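Lab notebook, page 48
Experiment: co-folding of the full assembly
Goal: obtain a model of how the components sit together before planning crosslinking
Operator: M.T.
Materials (sequences as entered):
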Amino acid sequence: MARRSKGGLEREIHAVLAEGAQPMTAAQVRLALGGDLAYTTVLTVLSRLFEKGEVAREQVGRSYAYTAPYDSAELTARRMTLLLDDRDTDRAAVLTRFVDSLPADDELLLRSLLDR
Amino acid sequence: MTAATLAALTAMLVFTAVAPRLGRRLPPAIATIALTVGSLLVAGSTGFVLTVLALTWLGQAPLIAWLAEWSPTALGASTPIPTFVAAGCLALLVAAVARTAIRAFRRGRALVAVRRAHRGSPNAVIVVDSDRPDAFATPSPGGRIVITSTLMAALTPAEQQVVLAHERAHLRHWHAWWLLLADLAEAANPLLRPTFATVQHAVERWADENAAHHTGDRTLVARTIARVALLRHGTATRPAALAATGGQVPQRVRALLAPRPARRTLLAGVLVALLAFSTLATVAVERTGDALFDRVATVQDQ
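Observation: model returned without errors.
Model output:
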């Protein structure tokens, strides 16, 4: 079986949870993926997704059951929202914004241009 | 060798002084390409000249001289470059390489994070729920256009088309990558900072002109830019002084209220001539440097 990338596995596990009607434990997620992954790998990815707020979990007995509150489109939108923060100069540098922030002096100038 | 070095450095200084001025008067697409390619040539030329000059001093170190098979004493006696100049060049070279490597690493990391954020998404345009009016495109290939619900709600359908046409132009013409190349050239040679600012401006103008062509209404595009800028201004979360492109929005609006920019073959010709001179001077540095190292070689080529 081809080795999965870190992001690819996250997306697969999220898809399994999003399709499942009920909360699933790590063992159930592992089975749904074909059972060829180590249990700890599945658990690690689930914890990572939980830390990012991309899945929810509840205590069931001695383990957690996971659910996906967003479908994949909502998940993408959620991740893209993080990109809106333009204080990260590196991220701002690789995105092409429609308009950047406006220095105070330019406001009046723009308003006068709009009025023409 | 001294003459070639001075010629290469002069070409670099003239480019850094002249390119931003010429760039603002050229049509935006030509300005973007000419200034980015020029920045890379000039940064590369400077790096190469610094390396050759540094080597005239560094090459006198016993280990390097032994590895390169030349005589350290002969090199010291025949180099026309004073030691303090060569040592200074070495310091500048190390600083430039370190600065470029750090910036490439940081931008690369951001690039990967952005791609990871939208990987697997089937939509070319992603509307995100946010109370900030904002729109941007992520880098090609497979870049997505992101627009916030607040901005969508504030714009008329025609204005939404302007924003989408502008961002689509960024994707179609790989603008993020032109910017990244000019950005890295600036990291290698900080004298290129005004040139980089001009490339940033030219890329936005390029997308503006595309949007104007697409919608067929220059005034509409101008009004949309002004309106979005004022909307964003009202909700700005960071001090305006941090904006790298400050003062450019009014210029974009003015340019759109004026007729379409004309071709400027002569100006473009000046830039090309300058870059050709820079390249020639760099080749001359290579030739004369090579001749110097050949003269001091302990093993002579037959």
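Interpretation: The two ends of chain B are 24 Å apart (CA to CA).
Next step: discuss with group before ordering constructs.
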